[in-house]
């Protein structure tokens, strides 16, 4: 069993520190981020809490063979999960291998659990009704009474605060499973309530991002995206506004800038240069790229590349 906590000044490094998750974090707010991650990871479970002080888009795939649950903490806005607002008395669900798309607001604090799905199914068969078990196969959001959710959250947070590697892993797993069963046993499925338009909007944003990154050296324009997705400009603009609070051009530029940062940090090969990375991602004017990069991340792209080369 592994226990750790760490602070980060880069959302990319923060995302990579969460063991077992195939995911990418893209920073949307301007300036240096300051994030925090604490986790306890065992062979068949994981428990972690993350705090983000900047707006971030999280996208990726849940660990295979796991059931995953996320609980927003405190009163700060948590953002949107799969195109739906995630309230303070709600939890989000993912099954192993499912893709996710999350818009996390600045100040978000999130507590997350993953457990071995086969192990959970065995114990849940004696604890949950057939209807509750059925929900686990398709629900994305559940409403949980505040008192029960707070009780389970406090129980899980106490496990994170112990930081004792000598704790018995089986005992910790038992505590995690019991807290999860307590939450799911009191939950009400709200996944299908008034969800249609927002879910479609989140899908359009995700598809635009995929299409733009598929040919990043010559990014598609808004009209070209509308043509491929067979939607109007108004529909596309509304989708981005509802899902991200940004115009399509602004959001997709931020996505490409985040990819540039990852390449500058992760690929400090002798032939890597700021101009090459910029050109590969469709930024044809190097001076404009440098200004936009510094505005978003609080440092020049040459500084990012130099720091990465020095670290290697």
From TrEMBL:
It holds the Pfam family HTH_18. Regulatory protein of the TOL plasmid xyl operons. XylS activates the xylXYZLTEGFJQKIH operon required for the degradation of toluene, m-xylene and p-xylene. InterPro entries: AraC_XylS_family_regulators, Homeodomain-like_sf, HTH_AraC. It comes from the Bacteria. This is HTH araC/xylS-type domain-containing protein. Residues 206-307 form the HTH araC/xylS-type domain. Keywords: DNA-binding, Transcription, Transcription regulation. GO terms for molecular function: DNA-binding transcription factor activity; sequence-specific DNA binding. SUPFAM superfamilies: Homeodomain-like. It comes from Pseudomonas cremoricolorata.
């Amino acid at each position: 069993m592994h226990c750790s906590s760490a602070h980060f000044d880069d959302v990319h490094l923060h995302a990579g520190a969460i063991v077992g998750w195939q995911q990418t974090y893209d920073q949307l707010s301007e300036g240096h981020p300051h994030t925090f991650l604490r986790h306890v990871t065992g062979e068949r479970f994981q428990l972690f809490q993350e705090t983000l002080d900047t707006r971030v888009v999280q996208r990726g795939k849940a660990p295979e063979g796991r059931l995953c649950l996320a609980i927003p903490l405190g009163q700060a806005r948590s953002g949107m999960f799969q195109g739906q607002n995630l309230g303070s008395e709600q939890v989000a669900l993912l099954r192993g291998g499912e893709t996710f798309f999350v818009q996390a607001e600045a100040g978000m604090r999130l507590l997350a659990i993953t457990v071995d799905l086969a192990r959970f199914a065995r114990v849940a068969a004696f604890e949950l009704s057939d209807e509750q078990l059925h929900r686990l196969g398709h629900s994305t959001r559940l409403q949980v009474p505040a008192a029960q959710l707070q009780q389970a959250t406090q129980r899980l947070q106490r496990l994170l605060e112990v930081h004792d590697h000598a704790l018995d892993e089986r005992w910790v797993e038992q505590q995690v499973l019991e807290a999860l069963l307590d939450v799911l046993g009191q939950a009400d499925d709200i996944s299908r309530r008034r969800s249609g338009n927002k879910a479609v909007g989140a899908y359009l944003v995700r598809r635009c991002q995929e299409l733009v990154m598929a040919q990043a050296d010559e990014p598609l324009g808004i009209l070209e995206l509308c043509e491929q997705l067979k939607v109007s400009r108004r529909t596309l603009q509304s989708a981005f506004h509802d899902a991200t609070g940004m115009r399509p051009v602004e959001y997709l530029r931020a996505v490409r800038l985040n990819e540039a940062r990852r390449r500058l940090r992760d690929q400090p090969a002798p032939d890597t240069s700021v101009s090459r990375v910029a050109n590969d991602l469709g930024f044809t004017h190097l001076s404009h790229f440098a200004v936009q990069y510094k505005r978003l991340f609080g440092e020049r792209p040459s500084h990012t590349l130099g720091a990465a080369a020095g670290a290697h």
